[in-house]
Amino acid sequence: QVQLVESGGGLVQAGGSLRPSCAASGLTFSSHALGWFRQAPGKEREFVAAISGGGGSLDAADSVKGRFTISRDNAKTTVYLQMNSLKPEDTAVYYCAARRVQGGLGSRWSSDQYYNYWGQGTQVTVSS
Q1: Which of 10, 44, 56, 81 has the greatest count of CB atoms below 10 A from its CB?
Q2: Cα three-residue angle 64-68-74, rounded to 5 degrees
Q3: Are 116 and 100 in contact (CB under 8 A)?
Q4: Angstrom distance (rounded) from CA 75 to CA 91
Q5: Residue 12, strand partner residues
């Protein structure tokens, strides 16, 4: 049974930093591309960042480039999202997702329909 468990969200002031993580189990971790998505109240879920199984391919949404960095530790079967210079508009529930991919990110990695497995989410709130 595949499980993705996010943690590390919280309340932070604008300009601050957080580093949510997502621990995976029940899958061949290094064979899965991983993504972070977020959903704010009343809005659709949106892509934040993605990383390939080996960590060599990365992508991030324009809205977070230069502020957020995705990384993974395959030995710990964990993916991280380092979030710096946080803004109130970053407030959302953050989800990690996984899809088995043979090399690279595959295709459509920025679409939530692409991923097979999802975590339960972790709340990030940025106060102004």
Answers
A1: 81
A2: 135
A3: yes
A4: 30
A5: 126
